[in-house]
Structures are given as C-alpha cells and as structure tokens.
Amino acid sequence: MKWLVVAVYAACIAWIQLRGQVRHRWAKQVFDHSAFVAPVNVLLYAFSLVPARPYLALDSWPDLRQLQTHWRTIRDEANALRAERALKAAEKNDDAGFNSFFKEGWKRFYLKWYDADPVSAARLCPRTVEILRGVPSVKGALFAELPPGAKLNPHRDPFAGSLRYHLGLDTPNDDRCCIWVDGEFYSWRDGQAVVFDETFIHWARNGTDKSRLILLCDIERPMKFRWAAAFNHWLGRHLLAAAASPNQQGDRTGLINRVFVVFYHAGQLRRRFKQWNRTVYRVTKFALVAAVVAAIVFW
After folding, report:
1. d(C-alpha 97, C-alpha 28), whole Å
2. Which of 37, 42, 108, 247 has a CA 20 to 30 Å removed from the CA of 157?
C-alpha cells in the first residue's frame, strides 16, 4: 500500500512536469511547491471544462466584460493608490503567494481574496470593489505593478483550481513589456484583457522605462461535473482564503501567511548557512533528503 501511494504521487508529479512545452528540470520540479499538491491538481485537470492550453478564450466568461467596460474607472482608482504609495510589497513578509516577486520591486494591493475582503480596499477603492462584486467569476483580485527593468523568473502557480485574468490599466503598451505562458508571448495593452492557465510555466519582464499597472484576478476553473465544481469551490474557500495577505493594518492575514512568516525567517537562516560554507550546506541537504527517503522506505 505504501509503495502504491508513493507511485501514485510520483506519477502525479510526472504529469505536472510533462504538461506543456516548457518545463523545469526534474530536480527542480520534484521540490517545487506545485509538486506538493500534484494529486489534487491532476484531479482538477482531469475534470476541467476548459482545454489544456496556455491562453483561453475570454468569451467563456461573459461576466468579465464588466471589467473591460469599466477599465478607466478601475485605472483611475489604481493610479490614485499608486500616487499615495499604497501599492507596495508585504511589509511583514506575510504574502507567501507573491513573496519572490518583491525582490524585483513588484508591488500589489489586494481588492478581494476569496472570502477575505480587505477593509482597506472598500475604503480606498469603492468603485472597483463594487464592480468586482458584480463579477461572480472573480474569486481574488489585486492591482499589480511591475516597475521598469524588472522581471519575474519562470515559475508555475501551485493550485490548478483557478485561472488567471489580466486587464491592462496603465501599461507601456510596448512589446518589450510582456509575458510568456508555456513559451507563448503576450504583451499588455491598456483596456485589453487576457485569460491564461498560470499552472503552465510562465515568466514576465518589463524592458521599458515605464511601470506596468494591471488588474490581476483569480477566476475559478470551470469543471465538467457538479461534484467536481463543488470540490474546487470548497478548496478555494478553505485553502486559498487561508492565503489572504493584508494591504494595511486592520486587514485580515490568513493562516498560511501567518505560518509563512516563520518559514521566511527559517529560509533567511538557511541562506546564511549556505553562504557560510556551501560544501557543508550541500552535505547537510543531502543528509536530510536521505533521511526522508529512509523514513519512507522503512515506514
């Protein structure tokens, strides 16, 4: 039974790795955060109503048209936030989902996050929050700014229950500010939108001298059967909601991000250990991996 579980888990990781044209190295994929939830993601892929392709047709979500209709209103509130320096990195290392982006100067402001509605969003962006309430497909939303010269390295998001929507608000309108999803190119334009599957490997760069400001949304992946849709919805409410991160004091911080703060500081210690002596670090890492393998074998 033990080996059956291990075999199924390994097969799920292999499915994640082989899905798409662009892939991590096997060693990286095995330890990537997407590997930890691979069995759940494989189940979601198997019963997904949308095709397994990087970019998806906007027409599949007619309610999203409301966002493009009101994009100038949304842009104005986003620019007002930017002027007040309210778009920023997490101040207390309590945003696990986007933590690696902050070192590039990436900034965000949450508008809604599943069942967590930031108090600051309703106060500072009332029109945008009102518009989003009329778009049931959107489960999470935030303003995201990518500064000039910044890049986001190749990565895949860990949870397949959602898809990603981008609406250009105040962008360079230049092909040098762009994203690749599974190797396929897209460049943001003001007032234009795109939906893509963020569980394919994707990366972005802003090679211009102007910041890129967009509305970024999570939309729930449509499923073939009611039970699969209910399961996916339950995961979003209980798993993704736990990843809520605050914009300002008074906003909710989810359990995942409260725990992440501890892991962040542990990661800082790990990096200092690696800088102190790389050889000792590698030996220690190998010993820990060997101990985990031994625990599985003799379990």
Report:
1. 18
2. 247
